[in-house]
Design a protein that fits this description.
- It comes from Xiphophorus maculatus.
- One of its GO terms (cellular component) is membrane.
- This is MARVEL domain-containing protein.
- It is a single chain.
- By secondary structure, this protein is mainly alpha-helical.
- It has 3 domains: 114 residues; 131 residues, no CATH class; 33 residues.
- Helices cover 69% and strands 0% of the residues.
């Protein structure tokens, strides 16, 4: 696997994935073998949700690496690259089988990471990683440097949100409403990605058409185009995440900041013709707003 090393970012990403996923699998196996997951339950951690979520994340990473590695390093005359590509696809296939087993055969229902809201955050982080490994040709253009900063800002917050939702006790210790923080984070992320989705194509591809000789494996222009493509993908992911969170559908949690208890209708006997009924309702609304 390490033969024929390269400084190419896709190769580095492949090496990281093929190290990270087996190590996480080994750690999970050891924990389950010795029953250490009981200790993790003390932190109100849903172990089944975590393992299924990791299988989903690992399948996503290994399949994407198999595709990119085969694109860059596999050819008819590259026996070693072709063999690695075959095993890379086999690795991704095995992780996908584990996901199918957990979700459809064992019918495990995830509480966060293996459910849609948590895995959506994993997708956003994954696409951000693909943007980072594709970044090139931006250093001499200030507008593109701003785009890189835009890509960086939301990325470290995503794993923190995921970890906090997995560890329920940690979530309860926070001095603020995490769901409301996530909503604000999504609004900011959408605005940032709208900026990048406009600026990156303009300043990268203006007066820079695709070269006539531009093979997918070795063309810098094609890699720069991948940044634009993944920018739009992440913009869509963050926008859908924001809409689902705002509407509170598909397991996404609303912030609840716009919901107040309504006054009973009709008014209770003895209150209907009294101003105290209206003041009573106002007090209830004010109290609800204070609690939130």
């Amino acid at each position: 696997m390490f033969r024929g090393g390269s400084s190419h970012t896709y190769w580095i990403y492949a090496m990281f994935t093929w190290a990270f996923c087996p190590i996480m699998t080994l750690i999970i196996t050891i924990i389950e073998m010795f029953g250490l997951d009981i200790i993790l339950n003390m932190f109100c951690m849903d172990w089944g949700d975590f393992t299924t979520g990791m299988a989903m994340s690992s399948s996503l990473m290994t399949v994407s690496v198999a595709i990119t590695y085969a694109n860059f390093y596999a050819c008819l005359k590259c026996l070693y690259g072709s063999i690695v590509s075959v095993f890379a696809f086999l690795c991704g296939f095995l992780y996908m089988l584990e996901v199918v087993k957990d979700k459809f055969l064992d019918k495990k229902k995830g509480s966060y990471l293996a459910a849609l809201p948590g895995f959506w955050k994993v997708l956003e982080a994954f696409v951000s990683c693909m943007i980072f490994v594709s970044l090139t040709g931006y250093r001499d253009k200030p507008a593109l440097i701003f785009c890189v900063i835009v890509y960086i800002i939301p990325f470290p917050i995503l794993p923190l949100i995921i970890a906090t939702n997995i560890l329920k006790k940690l979530k309860n210790c926070l001095p603020f409403n995490l769901d409301r923080f996530v909503f604000i984070f999504l609004v900011i992320s959408v605005v940032l990605y709208i900026f990048a989705a406009i600026m990156w194509p303009i300043f990268m591809f203006r007066h820079n058409p695709r070269p006539s000789d531009c093979p997918p494996s070795f063309c810098i222009w094609a890699i720069q185009f991948m940044v634009a493509f993944f920018t739009y993908v992440n913009l869509i992911l963050f926008t859908v995440d924001l809409i689902f969170t705002l509407l509170g559908i598909c397991g996404f949690k609303q912030t609840g900041s716009l919901h107040f208890p309504s006054c009973p209708s009709p008014a209770p006997a003895g209150f209907a013709e009294s101003r105290s009924y209206l003041s009573h309702c106002r007090e209830d609304r004010a109290a609800a707003g204070t609690k939130r």
